[in-house]
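In the design runs reported in the main text, the only information available to the sequence generator was the tokenized backbone. The following block is the verbatim input for one such run; it is reproduced so that readers can re-run the procedure and compare outputs position by position.
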């Protein structure tokens, strides 16, 4: 992966289709991004693409594989693979429902008999599971018999997202087929979405179960490597989990940074943010906002001050944010604090203050790692309450679909032009191919400096006045200083 910012967007959120996205990347966004992460463009039965029917096809309403392949000639393409589950409407699960145990696809699913011999889950085991729904299974009729199969996600009962048995040879062969399709179409990176849930083991949390999870990741890493594809595990877990993966050489997400930046800007305190930046690995992807919510628990567990976290979430609520909550009592704080993610746009959380948004966006590309910039955040979007009311899904606050006309207007805003200047500088300055040499507290703020290829650049952020200054010295010692 090249060391340039990536755009992350749904296939239909910028102009309505993949061809429209390609035109925007070659038009008003030209020169901004070295890669684009396209959220699931596959045929899907729900969860905005995260309940895929297959990875072999592109949803015709979005475009074709040719659109992906052409974009991949000029930039790094990243796609998701939900290695934990597939749609209940897929041909694989439909065949299982029709033919039961005699289905050629029966072995890729997880009826409870695979975990408990009598098919009856143990109550103690259930109490340990990191739940994403009331019960981690759904009931179906397969081949004329009543079956309960594992379903980690989905509020529906039965769920639209059916978990896969990643230990099955049939599953592994199917995943290889999908990787081949990705490689044929210039995909450079695959995010392993929900990979933390792939191991189901009685008596455990069924989330990032060690050491079994490493066996799976070694296998899938070897598979992807055969086709020249990098992998990015997406794991929302205690920060020590990400550190373990980083130490093993994996790309990881910095899911701590978004909360740390938000806390610094809302409370005017940068000490915790600077401490985090000083210990961050370089081989990571950084985010601020995304298609879900801004992570709190469990990503920042044991790092945040409970009183400050409550103050931060209260301020966000006042500004229109909603919350995704932890369901398992065992994984809530002792005082009942249970915020999993803060849902809404970063722009609204920052009270639609352009200078505050610029400060947040300036810190991200100066942080160690490759910045991934969410399309709504790039356009300084506000909460889409109509989508939220229509769907009932709090995450839809931050999933506005922009028409071409809206994009034409948004890119004329001064805040977008300031962001574009920042991103272009991040792309073009050789210092970012070196190392961050100084990450320090300043009066009322912080500074981050990079040295590389004979050049230096330094960001200084004043959290009281929300002013960001950049100082740059090139290889010939020509100096430049400006305010974003």
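Verbatim output:
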């Amino acid at each position: 992966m090249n060391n340039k910012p990536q755009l992350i967007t749904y296939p239909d959120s910028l102009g309505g289709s993949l061809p429209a996205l390609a035109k925007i990347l070659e038009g008003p966004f030209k020169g901004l991004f070295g890669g684009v992460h396209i959220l699931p463009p596959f045929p899907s039965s729900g969860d905005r693409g995260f309940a895929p029917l297959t990875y072999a096809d592109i949803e015709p309403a979005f475009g074709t594989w040719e659109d992906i392949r052409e974009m991949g000639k000029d930039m790094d393409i990243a796609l998701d693979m939900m290695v934990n589950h597939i749609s209940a409407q897929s041909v694989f699960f439909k065949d299982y429902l029709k033919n039961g145990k005699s289905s050629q696809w029966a072995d890729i699913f997880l009826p409870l008999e695979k975990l408990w011999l009598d098919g009856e889950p143990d109550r103690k085991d259930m109490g340990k599971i990191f739940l994403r729904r009331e019960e981690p299974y759904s009931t179906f009729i397969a081949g004329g018999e009543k079956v309960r199969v594992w379903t980690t996600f989905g509020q529906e009962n039965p769920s639209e997202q059916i978990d896969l048995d990643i230990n099955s040879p049939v599953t592994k062969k199917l995943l290889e087929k999908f990787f081949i399709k990705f490689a044929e179409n210039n995909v450079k990176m695959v995010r392993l979405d929900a990979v933390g849930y792939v191991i189901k083991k009685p008596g455990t949390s069924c989330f990032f179960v060690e050491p079994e999870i490493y066996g799976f990741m070694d296998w899938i890493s070897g598979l992807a490597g055969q086709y020249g594809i990098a992998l990015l595990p997406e794991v929302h877990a205690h920060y020590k989990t990400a550190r373990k993966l980083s130490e093993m050489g994996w790309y990881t997400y910095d899911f701590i940074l978004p909360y740390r930046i938000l806390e610094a800007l809302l409370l005017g305190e940068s000490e915790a943010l600077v401490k985090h930046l000083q210990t961050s690995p370089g081989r990571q992807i950084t985010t601020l906002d995304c298609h879900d919510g801004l992570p709190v628990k469990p990503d920042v567990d044991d790092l945040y001050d409970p009183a400050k976290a409550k103050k931060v979430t209260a301020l966000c609520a006042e500004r229109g944010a909603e919350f995704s909550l932890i369901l398992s009592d065992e994984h809530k704080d002792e005082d009942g604090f249970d915020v999993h993610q803060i849902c809404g746009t970063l722009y609204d959380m920052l009270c639609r203050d352009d200078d505050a948004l610029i400060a947040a966006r300036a810190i991200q590309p100066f942080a160690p790692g490759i910045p991934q910039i969410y399309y709504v955040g790039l356009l300084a979007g506000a909460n889409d309450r109509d989508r939220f009311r229509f769907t009932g899904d709090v995450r839809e606050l931050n999933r506005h679909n922009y028409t071409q006309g809206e994009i034409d207007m948004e890119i004329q805003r001064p805040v977008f032009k300031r962001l574009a200047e920042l991103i272009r500088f991040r792309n073009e300055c050789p210092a970012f191919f070196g190392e961050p040499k100084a990450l320090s507290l300043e009066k009322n703020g912080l500074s981050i400096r990079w040295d590389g290829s004979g050049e230096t650049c330094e960001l200084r952020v004043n959290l009281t006045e929300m002013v960001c200054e950049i100082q740059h010295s090139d290889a010939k010692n020509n100096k430049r200083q400006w305010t974003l």
